[in-house]
Fold this sequence. Notes:
Number of helices: 0
Low-confidence stretches: none
Shape: globular
Number of strands: 8
Radius of gyration: 14 Å
Mean pLDDT: 94
Oligomer: single chain
Amino acid sequence: MQVQEFTDKVSFQMQTSTGDVREYQKYGKFKFVVEGIEAELTIYENEHGFFLPFIDSLAGKETYPAGRYLEPEPSAGDYFFIDFNLAYNPYCAYNEKWSCPLTPAENRLKVPIRAGEKLFHE
C-alpha cells in the first residue's frame, strides 16, 4: 500500500498494558477501503522497525479487545507490504505479565478487518 510519509516525524509515547510507555515516531499513514467505507491507519517506527497496532469494529466479539498488531515491511518508494492476514494478537492476550503497547485512538477503526488472528477463547 502507498503510505503518505509524514514530513515532521513526531515522537510519541505509547502506553503499554502494564503502565509503562514506549517511544515511537509517527512515520506515516495510509488509506484503504473496507466494505465500501474509507479507513486510515498510522504506522509507527522505533529502533526495532515499523509497527502497526489497530483495533477494528470486531474487537471484543471476534478479535482481541485491545487490538492486533502488524509489522509492515517497506517496499519500493513510498509503498509498504501490509497484509491484514498476518495480523496477530499481542503477547499480553495470552499472558498478562507481558507489557504490550496499547493501540492509539487514531488507529481504532469503525470497520471490520475480517482477516488475521481472531479471539482464542471466550
